[in-house]
Write a structure and sequence with these properties.
single chain; about 100 residues; mainly alpha; about 0% strand
Length: about 100
């Protein structure tokens, strides 16, 4: 929950773009770089076929960052939403994984 909240906070600042490591976004735990080790495996982590379904499963299990929910949370945190932003927040929440605690 803390990681998801921190992720949503990225969308509250003045930045026009944010960057997130794909391993953090997707909830991957395997290291893709082991310092001091020279091998073909270092810096070679790739997305595998079926990663999309695995990502959705990790979001449901709260083990990966939920992009639509983070953006919706950020929109709502900004306060007084216009009709267009409120509609976008609702659509993002509908596209998001299950609500926390739900």
């Amino acid at each position: 929950a803390l990681a998801q909240a921190a992720f949503a906070e990225l969308f509250l600042g003045p930045a026009r773009q944010v960057a997130v490591s794909f391993s953090d976004l997707l909830g991957l735990e395997a290291p893709y770089n082991v310092p001091g080790i020279v091998s073909d495996a270092n810096w070679s982590q790739r997305l595998v076929p079926g990663f999309s379904a695995a990502y959705r499963d990790r979001v449901r299990a709260r083990r990966a960052l939920d992009v639509p929910r983070a953006v919706a949370t950020a929109l709502r945190a900004r306060g007084d939403l216009g009709a267009r932003a409120a509609s976008l927040a609702r659509a993002l929440e509908a596209a998001a994984g299950p609500a926390p605690g739900g």
